[in-house]
Batch of 2 targets.
Target 1
Amino acid sequence: MTPEELRAELESGCVRPVYLVAGDEPLHRDDSIASLRELLLANGPSDFNFEVLGPGHSGGALTDALRTLPVMAPFRLVLLKLGSGARGAPSELTDAVAEICLSELDAGTAEEGSSVLAVVVPKIDRRSKWVKAIGRDALVNCDAPSKLAEVAAFVTSEARAQGVELERGVAKLLAERIGPQLLLLRNEIAKAALFAGPGSPVTRSHVAAGTPDIAEGPVWDLTDAIGDGRADQALEALSKLLSAGAPPPVLLGALASHFRGLVRVRYGGAISRPAFVVRKMEGQARRYTARRLLNCMDAIRETDMALKGAGVLRPEAALERLVIGLSG
């Protein structure tokens, strides 16, 4: 099921005892977790009814968490986050997932007053015992879209969720301009709706006037120059994008997306991008140590705060400083 189908199923009152939230798109995973928390806990106290476990926990800890009863809420949600991939998780933990699914969790609907397990992981091996034990029907597919039609379908769904009407062809145009950067697309839909005005549909003219075209060459020129360590060319590409009207927050989002991809590649994870792009990013990731990549992500977060008013630099200057730091 998709994250949208997960939410619809929960809203209908159908709750499964276990979910497998798997895929490399962080926005899809975050949306799925948000739906589970909102609809399972039903405003109950999170301190008692929401527990997060990870690879550092034992199978016994997982079993104990699932046997704990909810407090003033219909269900208790236990989130098991397996980090960069299930291969990095202790076999004791994944074996415990399989055993719990096979012996303690019914295959049907969860009953109120029980705990629900959600396993969150960027990548799975469908042949694994624990994945088979959870079952295909409980899989929430959070893979990033790789085709234009899939990105346009996300735009259509997201606009519907925001209550925004799109004229014919607008979803495809947004997909072409922004590409598979889902968080940026979410923001651009909201911005286009403000541009169109209350009660008015978003037209192609609104998108052409207010949405920068960053899906193709210019942004790739920027990220490639940064990844290759060509600071002067990276600054030149940044200047061209800013001159063309690309908003600093949108450019920062593109850089964040690129470096999240480099982190995944550096730690052996998979990314849903064309093969030639993956090869290019693998080469770029080798130029950075693991510690350096984490420092880059910290610098991106600090720049995000600066763009939101926490810094003294102008947004353009803050981006220039970031680009120099990322390229070094």
Note: Strands lie at 18-22, 50-53, 75-81, 114-121, 139-141.
Target 2
Amino acid sequence: MEINILTGQIIGAAIEVHKNLGPGLLESAYEECLCHELTLRKLAYKRQLPLPVKYKGLRLDCG
């Protein structure tokens, strides 16, 4: 899938979740609903993958 189309679909899914839930909930609630929205849109995803974080030349083990 072309990257701009995929990006638009992901952002659209996130906006849909936020429109329905509003602000102020825990991250876990948004994550669960976003995963459901991505599934409804037939978009593949993986949850909570570890990613390396670098900050000003320092590699952090928090990602």
Note: The helical segments are 3-21, 27-40.
